[in-house]
Design brief:
The complex is a heterodimer of chains A (501) and B (104). Chain A is an all-alpha fold. Chain A is 72% helix and 0% strand. The chains are: A mainly alpha (501), B alpha+beta (104).
Chain lengths: 501, 104
């Protein structure tokens, strides 16, 4: 076997992720979550965990389960594990959401009382199990493939931060619900100061390092640009990963030993290094875009650049907030921009490529050579999808500004805009998976038509008649199931690939 | 086609222009993925590569190559060998393909 198998759970991970994102946006749009409600209100916790554990984590896990085998040229250590792990993750997240709503002030606090309180640690444990199974599966696959290319090193570092994020989150959840679990001083310190480190490890480590590695691999592949980034690539990775690690470990330790100033300085140095690392990454990706051989970009690569631009903006914004000595509220819009603009923007734009690609493999891969098949790009309608992506990125920016203001009504309106954009994107993804008779009838007449920008339905359709009119040409010595008509080259068949050449 | 009924190398190459890299949407011959074609006594041997090692579409491209050539008159055996050296680069594309992707 030359290529790696398509992971049958990947699309299910993406479906769960999109549903969770829609629910989270609906809560913000309805005004029951931050910024209309306090940042630690039960409904806000629900929204945040829908975004992080419901949307971004399954998105990243689904992408890695498909991409790690491509990076390592090995099958996953276990092809079956992601299925049960997804079930654990979904059930656990559901229980966690119930648990958040049962916290003091939440709508379930009164009717369910302490019984509902148990949902948080139980749900957390299930989520840890689901995420853990995936993390171990991916980590073992990466370990067996050492030495790793750059994108693989990003994935490995991201998995380490995933473990740190989940373990710290579980500890925080347990501290909230079972206050006697830890010594009082430790519990109070964690409850008071643990959250920023949970966010740092999750958004900075797990999500951003994964997105950097996946973005590097996919955008290099799809734009025909060199994936090997040399010293700048190595520098970006090391500065970001080591800097974040230092900031996390030293910063967390400093909260328990506030007198140890060296720890605080180390944490600051780590944050500085990570900031520099992400800046080098963004600059290197800009160079990679300029080095690309595929001049006309497809939609996923065009909006991938928008996501990178919002990453740069979030980085600058965060730096200003840090230098101004802002508290957690000052970083809320930066986190919003990172979550919705950079991570979700990159995720949605790459889904627009990955979903049709997996659909092509599933539906048409085995038919190539026997009959005409469409290209991946024939499955999508970039013209129809583009406005939804523009709305998404504009909405993410406005949402961040509304959080910064703060302007709760504007935040609700922008969340509604994001929800509408998401519905449009989801509709286009569903379109790419629909079986359409005109594509099946025409097969790949389009062939080499430039896929970027142009909707390809017309070019496919224009070849339908020609395809149907051409008789099958094949050797009688090789019996096999009857294929649909394919031009017999031996009889001077038409060129099927190059209408636009 | 030769007097023996087997296809010429050029005929095989032309047939392979109907096999595509699904993501790039261009045929494997002009992408430069076909490194060599040999035809002898009805047996066709193709040496080729892929744009990305480990790509999930690789097996389908290989099988599509085999299937398309096997459909030619006079072919009774097809062997497809996928190699990774030399590694494929966009510079291996035909001039037409380079123009198509915008870097000719």
């Amino acid at each position: 076997m030359l290529g790696v198998r398509v992971q049958r759970w990947t699309l299910r991970y993406f479906a769960v992720a999109l549903a969770a994102l829609a629910l989270a946006l609906a809560l913000v749009a309805a005004g029951v979550s931050y910024p209309a409600a306090p940042i630690l209100a039960p409904a806000t916790l629900v929204t945040v965990h829908l975004l992080t554990l419901g949307w971004l984590t399954p998105l990243m896990l689904g992408a890695l389960s498909q991409l790690v085998p491509v990076i390592t040229r090995r099958q996953l250590a276990s092809d079956g594990a992601p299925g049960p792990a997804l079930a654990l993750l979904v059930v656990g997240l559901g229980a966690m959401l119930v648990g958040f709503l049962a916290l003091g002030g939440g709508p379930l606090a009164a009717p369910f009382g302490t019984a509902a309180d148990l949902a948080l640690p139980i749900g957390g444990a299930l989520v840890v199990s689901g995420v853990g199974v995936n993390a171990v599966n991916l980590a073992v696959t990466l370990w067996r493939a050492r030495p790793l290319p750059l994108s693989g090193r990003y994935a490995a570092a991201a998995l380490a931060f995933l473990a740190a994020t989940v373990l710290l989150g579980l500890t925080l959840a347990a501290t909230l619900t079972v206050p006697t679990l830890l010594p009082p001083v430790l519990a109070a310190t964690l409850a008071g100061e643990g959250l920023p480190f949970h966010v740092l490890a999750g958004v900075g480590g797990w999500f951003t390092l994964t997105a950097m590695g996946v973005g590097l691999k996919l955008l290099a592949m799809f734009t025909l640009a060199p994936e090997e980034r040399g010293r700048s690539g190595d520098a970006a990775f090391l500065l970001t990963a080591v800097g974040l690690g230092l900031a996390f470990v030293a910063g967390l330790a400093a909260t328990f030993a506030p007198a140890a100033r060296a720890l605080g300085m180390l944490a600051d140095m780590g944050l500085g290094a990570a900031t520099l690392g992400v800046a080098v990454f963004v600059a290197d990706m800009a160079i990679m875009y300029r080095q690309r051989r595929r001049r006309a970009l497809e939609l996923n690569a065009r909006f991938g650049a928008w996501a990178l631009a919002l990453l740069a903006l979030a980085l600058g914004w965060g730096l200003v907030a840090r230098l101004a000595g802002g508290g957690m509220a000052a970083f809320a819009p930066v986190v919003a921009l990172a979550l919705m603009g950079w991570l979700s923007g990159l995720g949605l734009s790459q889904l627009y490529k990955i979903v049709p690609f997996l659909t092509w493999i599933e539906r048409y891969g085995a038919r190539m050579g026997r009959e005409r098949v469409p290209r991946v790009q024939d499955l999508v309608r970039e013209g129809q999808a583009k406005p939804w992506f523009v709305l998404w990125f504009v909405g993410a920016l406005v949402l961040s500004l509304a959080v910064a203001a703060p302007a709760p009504d504007l935040a609700r309106a922008s969340a509604l805009a994001l929800l509408i954009a998401l519905a449009g994107i989801a509709w286009e993804l569903a379109h790419s998976r629909r079986v359409r008779p005109e594509i099946l009838a025409a097969g790949n007449g389009a062939g080499t038509g430039d896929s970027a920008g142009a909707g390809s339905g017309a070019s496919v359709g224009s070849n339908a008649a020609a395809a149907a009119a051409v008789p099958l040409g094949r050797s009688a010595a090789l019996p096999r199931p009857a294929p649909a008509p394919l031009t017999p080259t031996t009889k001077g068949g038409a060129n099927h690939g190059n209408e636009r050449r | 086609m030769s007097d023996t009924g087997e296809p010429s190398v050029e005929t095989v190459r032309e047939a392979l222009r109907e096999v595509y890299d699904p993501e790039l949407g261009y045929n494997i011959v002009d992408l430069g993925l076909v490194y060599g074609i040999a035809v002898e006594d009805g047996r066709v041997e193709i040496t080729m590569t892929m744009t990305t090692p480990g790509c999930p579409a690789a097996d389908y491209i290989e099988e599509g190559t085999r299937e398309r050539v096997a459909m030619l008159d006079g072919v009774h055996d097809v062997a497809v060998q996928v190699v990774w050296s030399p590694p494929w680069t966009p510079d291996m594309m035909s001039d037409d393909a380079k123009r198509h992707f915008g870097f000719a």
